Amino acid sequence: MTTWLAALRELQDAATPAVLVTVAGIQGSTPREAGARMVYTADRQYDTIGGGHLEWRAAQIARAMLAGDPGQLPAQRRLERIALGPSLGQCCGGVVFLSFERVEPAAAVVWKALEAHWRNGVDIWRALPLDNADPLQLVETDGEACDLNGSDNGLHAMLTGDVRQTCVTRDAHGRRWLLDLCRAHQPQVVLFGAGHVGTAIVKVLSNLPCRVLWVDEREDMFPAGLPPQVTVEATDVPNAAVDMAEPGAYYLVMTHSHALDQQLTERILKRDDIGWFGLIGSHTKRKQFEHRLAERGITQEQLNRMTCPIGIPGIYGKEPASIAIAVTAQLMQLWELRFTQARNKFPPALATHALDGRG
């Protein structure tokens, strides 16, 4: 499935008008969280905000906007309240507030800047005025406006407060803004090996919020058309890529050579800031590596940081797709634990006071 940002890039290259739909706020039980996004054109849709009749209703609104006069505000931006009850054919029972914004090819500079921030692992806010046709602003998470459209319209004051998630709020003049927190693709996965299994894993990871540094000696093994969060490193010295990784990175080693696997394992385990390290192979391979690495000075404490075999229990297929699902699920469990701990430490402040009877 093409993600919303990749779709916008393709549509702008083709000069195709589109509408970006963002879950601007939620109340009660809903299919997706605030910040979920999808894109509509006159005849296609990309990504998802939860499926079912919610998306059917969103499609009606988005395509009506595309058919309208682009010079009029209702055809440019809208905020809609949609109750997920019997009238919509959904039984969630909650309420979803959807922001609709028409995206024209002329706005390509904004989306390229957003994509660059994501590729570099930098969180950024999209700040969209809902009550006028002022341009979309990008604001870095420290409150500094990117130099795209001039004045930040008071965004610094709003974004240096307690707003920590996508929401709709009002500025000092009572004007409504969509403040959309676009979290960068996190964390970083460093994957060594562009064989069948590595390729299958990257295919799955491409649909998840992470960044991938994909390393192999064989440049011709990498497929074309990779998404922006995947960076290819075709190098004759893959060991050096271990040192390129960020602190807290997640490593996967699955090259075409056991000797190279061992060299990479030793280098990774010598780092004291790895988030997780997985080595493809059997229990026998693990024992062999433990013995050889111990002889090279790797301590038992360091060896305990190596996961081998990899993948969640219960999925034992050896097809590349089966391994990719098992390994990706394992990574997702680790990430959920990490993000849950972070949320509990810093609970998000809610800012939904603009989603009221005033519009």
Question: Can you walk me through this structure?
Answer:
There is one protein chain. This protein is α/β, with parallel strands linked by helices and 359 residues long. Helix content is 32%, strand content 22%. The protein has ten helices and 15 strands. The longest helix is centred in the C-terminal third of the chain and has 26 residues. The chain is elongated, with a radius of gyration of 23 Å. The two termini are 34 Å apart.
Order of helices and strands: HEEEHEEHEEHEEEHEEHEHEHHEH
The number of distinct β-strands equals 15
Low-confidence stretches: 345-353
For the residues shown, what is the average pLDDT?
85
Give the strand order of the largest sheet, numbering strands 1, 2, ... along the chain. Answer: 12-11-10-13-14-15
Shape: elongated
Alpha-carbon distance between the two ends: 34 Å
Largest sheet: 6 strands, parallel
What is the percent of helical residues? 25-40%
Give me a quick take on this structure:
With 359 residues, this protein is of the alpha/beta class. 32% of the residues lie in helices and 22% in strands.
List the helices and strands and how they pair.
Layout: H1 4-13, E1 18-27, E2 37-40, E3 45-47, H2 52-67, E4 77-83, E5 95-103, H3 108-119, E6 124-129, E7 137-140, H4 155-159, E8 167-170, E9 176-182, E10 188-192, H5 196-205, E11 211-216, E12 230-234, H6 239-244, E13 250-253, H7 258-269, E14 276-279, H8 283-295, H9 300-303, E15 306-307, H10 320-345
Parallel strand pairs: 10-11, 10-13, 11-12, 13-14, 14-15
Antiparallel strand pairs: 1-2, 1-5, 2-3, 4-5, 6-7, 6-9, 8-9
Helix pairs in contact: 1-3, 5-10
